[in-house]
Write a structure and sequence with these properties.
- The protein folds into four domains: about 130 residues, 3-Layer(aba) Sandwich (Rossmann fold), CATH 3.40.50; about 160 residues, Rossmann fold (3-Layer(aba) Sandwich); about 70 residues, Helicase, Ruva Protein, domain 3 (Orthogonal Bundle); about 60 residues, Arc Repressor Mutant, subunit A.
- The chain contains 18 helices and 18 strands.
- Strand 6, helix 3 and strand 7 form a beta-alpha-beta unit.
């Protein structure tokens, strides 16, 4: 539906009855649904009981100031506010706009000004409705850009990406290893105005310290041994686009100083040159460390942190993303099937096993686990195919278990299973691998034990 014809509901608050009635009729002729109120108290109750697209409110009322309505909590999308007064000053207008008002009208109402305000109101509400629809679509599909997930833990991440992507703000993404910081950076870039320009990822921990300055800023021919030609660095190659600096805390401290200067000025100097090169680059950065801990440990300069963290964002680990493991597992299997032109499927027990597992390597480990299961399975991926070897310290129990002489085999087995589960911190797939039994057998034993308790 065109924005000009979207039906909007307005709350009109004014204690001047003749003026209120006249304005209500004028708004109704413009296609708005108008609800009238003559006091601040009545308007507060209306705001709490139903949704409004906008509130047109008199500044000065017998029972208070119209701006008090800005603090009334509402369900859903907050309404736009337009303040009306017969005693306007420039200070009043500035205060209203700073307080959150969309516009400011004076009595008597100028019809031309009113039309402009109403047109702006329609456009603003249409955009916000589209944003709400997009969020609902994201929740329903379980995808947002390159990100897969519909858990409640991921919804704030989607909301933050939608807000920051269209801006030019630097973003610092913090998340455990394997949570998908690069995928988030790709999504931010894809949703930005720079999407038609390059996104260049740089792993600051993978480039030797002696080369990272040259890789970032470039170098001139002959500037050091082996520099047999001019080299344009990542900043120059990403001009107009986005640079993603992964593992930013692994960047040498001295280079962090130079990076800060480039971020503030947009100017780079190639190694071996004093000629400034102007660049236009948006920087996204990521770290799997706590920024506070990295600053205290001297791994991240505090001034660089404040420059990068204009918009900080935390990615939840996979253990907090309830329901996303199964969704991600199916997504990875679909990708493998498409690539290899196969039609392999998950056995329901396998998805249960995946959901029960503790994925310390997060999404990266899950992806690798799905690929291993795909290789092992013929047509149906079963629970036993999903078991992935852990490092020796977590696969091999180091404690001992005392079994009283005379205990039955069943009792000894029960104690061993419970002790192994405690060792794996509830990771049933890992416990089954240690015990040398299938996950299905482990579940059967646990069901027997639970039934015996009841």
């Amino acid at each position: 539906m065109p924005t000009s014809t979207i039906p909007l509901t307005l709350l009109l608050l004014d204690d001047d009855a003749p003026f209120r009635t006249s304005l209500a009729l004028m708004l109704a002729r413009q296609g708005f649904e108008v609800v009238e109120a003559e006091s601040l108290g009545a308007a507060c109750e209306l705001l709490k009981s139903r949704a409004f697209d906008a509130v047109l409110v008199d500044q000065d009322l017998p029972d208070g100031q119209g701006k008090e309505l800005l603090r009334v909590p509402v369900d859903g999308v907050a309404p736009e506010f337009v303040f009306i007064t017969g005693t306007a000053t420039i200070d009043d207008a500035v205060a209203a706009l700073k307080g959150g008002a969309m516009d400011f009208l004076t009595k008597p109402i100028d019809p031309t000004k009113l039309q402009t305000t109403l047109a702006t109101l329609r456009r603003t509400r249409a955009l916000k409705r589209e944003l709400v629809d997009l969020r609902e679509e994201v929740r329903a599909r379980g995808r947002f850009g390159s990100i897969v997930g519909r858990s409640s833990a991921m919804q704030p991440v989607f909301d933050l990406i939608q807000r920051v992507a269209p801006t030019e703000a630097s973003v610092l993404i913090q998340g455990e290893s394997g949570t998908g910081t690069e995928v988030v950076a790709e999504t931010i870039h894809a949703q930005s105005r720079r999407s038609d320009k390059p996104l260049l990822p740089v792993n600051c921990g993978a480039i030797p310290e002696s080369l990272i300055e040259s890789e970032l800023f470039g170098h001139e021919r002959g500037s050091f041994t082996g520099a047999d030609r001019q080299h344009r660095g990542f900043f120059e190659r990403a001009d107009g686009g986005t640079l993603f600096l992964d593992e930013i805390t692994e960047m040498p401290a001295q280079l962090q100083v130079k990076l800060l200067r480039v971020l503030e000025t947009g100017v780079v100097h190639r190694v071996g040159s004093s000629v400034p090169v102007q660049t236009d680059v948006r920087v996204l950065a990521a770290t799997n460390r706590s920024p506070d801990a990295a600053i205290k440990a001297g791994k991240l300069r505090e001034d660089l942190y404040f420059r990068l963290a204009v918009f900080p964002m935390r990615l939840p680990p996979l253990r907090e993303r309830i329901g996303d493991v199964e969704l991600l597992a199916q997504h990875f299997l679909d990708a493998l099937n498409q690539h290899h032109r196969t039609d392999k499927r998950w056995h329901p027990d396998a998805l249960v096993a995946l959901a029960d597992r503790e994925w310390r390597g997060n999404v990266r480990e899950l992806k690798n686990g799905v690929q291993r299961a795909y290789i092992l399975a013929d047509d149906l991926l079963r629970a036993e195919d999903t078991t992935v070897a852990r490092p020796a310290d977590s696969r091999a129990p180091t404690g001992t278990l005392a079994i009283q002489v005379g205990a039955s085999i069943a009792d000894a087995e029960r104690e061993l299973i419970h002790a192994t589960l405690e060792h794996t911190r509830g990771d049933k797939a890992g416990a089954a691998a240690i015990l040398g039994i299938s996950l299905k057998t482990l579940y059967n034993r646990l069901n027997v034990y639970d039934a015996a308790k009841s």
